[in-house]
């Protein structure tokens, strides 16, 4: 009996060893299964945004809210109808010494690279996560519809959508993914000053001049951002302009500078947003009031070419008003502009004269 019993134990031992060997094909330890780790980088914010929402080196914008999307792929192509990570919520921590934000996916799930080295993943990410003015648009879940805030008295009609380009295709040898975020919207700032007949700035206009109202209107209120190709798409413009945001709704004396910036949909994919957005201004002096409306396409850069509303760029418009009696139309307004990167190191300048 003892001999038979010993053989039986040895048989069990062999079976267990065999099981361990087979498990290496589907490993269950972190030494074999490679967790995907993420870091976020690349977001430069404007001076206004830093002042209002964060300081340099603090948390990622929107309290670190990020959504990560990953598609299954081969070495040649990604299949965005076959998602590996479906808008997975994550949070970015404060910057480290290298200006990177460690990103942690929410919940208990840990995401691993596919074990087979022939299997790849492609990634993209955005912030903030979907909400009232940001919604997943299509059945394949790769498009985001961006809508304006319904409050047109606000100077901030849109969220500052932050997106990464399409990243990868990576397999398990990659180990980590850096998510380089950038602004997907355009930004506009409007200043108003008075000038004399030589074109020099007048700090105290005499007689006084005021701006009664300053608004932006648009023919295209909503846009769709396609994460799979990192591009904007827009519907056909409406026939008429509708008010988008109000920068001034009561009398403010000229010169008028350091106004809050306004986020706008950018020119993209054959749709020129400068033709579909206009500036509306009502000026007032002792003789009365007069109103003007200009499409942004009417503005000229210092090189005498039309201004653009470019993704990730800031366009600062300066309205230079030279006038004697605005009710009789004795004034000259010239539209001019420049474009610079949207970040805290500099501003772009556009002039309406």
Keywords summarizing the entry:
mainly beta, nine-stranded mixed β-sheet, 353 residues, 9% helix, disordered C terminus, 3 helices
Shape: elongated
Order of helices and strands: HEHEEEEEEEEEEEEEEEEEEHEEEEEEEE
**Rg on CA atoms, Å:** 28 Å
- Fraction of residues in β-strands: 35-45%
Can you count the helices?
Answer: 3
- Distance between the ends: 107 Å
Low-confidence stretches: 1-29, 46-57, 335-339, 341-352
Biggest sheet features: 9 strands, mixed
Task: Determine the fraction of residues in helical runs and give it as a percent range.
Answer: under 10%
Mean pLDDT equals 79
Q: What structural class is derived from the secondary structure elements?
A: mainly beta
Q: Number of DSSP strands?
A: 27
Concise account of the structure shown:
The protein has helices at about 1-25, 45-55, 275; strands at about 35-40, 65-75, 80-95, 100-105, 120-125, 135, 145, 160-165, 165-170, 175-180, 180-185, 185-195, 200, 210-220, 225, 230-235, 240-250, 250-255, 260-265, 275-285, 290-295, 300, 315-325, 330, 335, 340, 350.
Characterization of the model:
The protein has 353 residues and is mainly beta. The chain is built from three helices and 27 strands. The protein has helices spanning 2-23, 47-53, 273-276; strands spanning 37-41, 65-73, 78-95, 101-105, 120-127, 134-136, 143-146, 162-163, 167-170, 176-180, 182-183, 186-195, 201-202, 210-218, 223-226, 231-233, 242-248, 252-253, 262-264, 277-285, 288-295, 300-301, 313-325, 330-332, 335-337, 339-341, 350-352. The strands form four sheets. Strands 1, 2, 3, 4, 5, 8, 9, 10 and 11 form a nine-stranded mixed β-sheet that branches. Strands 12, 13, 19, 22, 23, 24, 25, 26 and 27 form a nine-stranded mixed β-sheet that branches. Mean pLDDT is 79; it is low at 1-29, 46-57, 335-339 and 341-352.
């Amino acid at each position: 009996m003892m001999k038979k019993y010993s053989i039986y134990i040895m048989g069990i031992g062999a079976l267990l060893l065999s099981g361990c060997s087979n498990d290496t094909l589907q490993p269950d330890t972190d030494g074999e299964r490679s967790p995907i780790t993420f870091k976020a980088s690349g977001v430069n914010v404007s001076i206004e945004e830093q002042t209002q929402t964060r300081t340099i080196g603090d948390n990622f914008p929107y309290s670190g809210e990020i959504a990560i999307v990953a598609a299954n792929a081969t070495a040649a192509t990604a299949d965005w109808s076959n998602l590996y990570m479906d808008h997975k919520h994550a949070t970015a921590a404060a910057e480290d010494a290298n200006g990177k934000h460690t990103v942690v996916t929410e919940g208990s799930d840990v995401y691993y690279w596919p074990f087979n080295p022939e299997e790849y993943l492609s990634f993209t990410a955005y912030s903030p996560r979907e909400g009232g003015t940001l919604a997943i648009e299509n059945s394949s879940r790769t498009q985001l519809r961006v809508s304006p805030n319904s409050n047109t008295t606000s100077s901030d009609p849109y969220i500052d959508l932050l997106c990464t380009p399409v990243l990868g295709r990576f397999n398990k040898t990659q180990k980590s993914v850096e998510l380089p975020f950038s602004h997907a919207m355009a930004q506009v700032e409007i200043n108003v000053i008075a000038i004399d007949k030589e074109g020099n700035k007048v700090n105290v206009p005499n007689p006084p001049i005021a701006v009664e109202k300053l608004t932006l209107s648009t023919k295209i209120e909503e846009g769709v951002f396609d994460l799979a190709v990192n591009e904007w798409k827009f519907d056909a413009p409406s026939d008429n302009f509708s008010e988008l945001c109000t920068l001034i709704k009561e009398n403010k004396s000229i010169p008028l500078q350091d106004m809050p910036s306004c986020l706008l949909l950018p020119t993209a994919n054959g749709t020129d947003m400068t033709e579909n957005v206009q500036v509306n201004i009502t000026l007032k002096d002792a003789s009365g009031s007069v109103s003007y409306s200009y499409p942004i396409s009417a503005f000229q850069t210092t090189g005498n070419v039309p201004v653009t509303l470019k993704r990730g760029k800031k366009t600062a418009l300066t309205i230079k008003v030279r006038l004697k009696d605005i009710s009789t139309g004795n004034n000259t307004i010239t539209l001019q502009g420049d474009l610079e990167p949207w970040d805290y190191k500099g501003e772009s300048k556009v002039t309406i004269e």
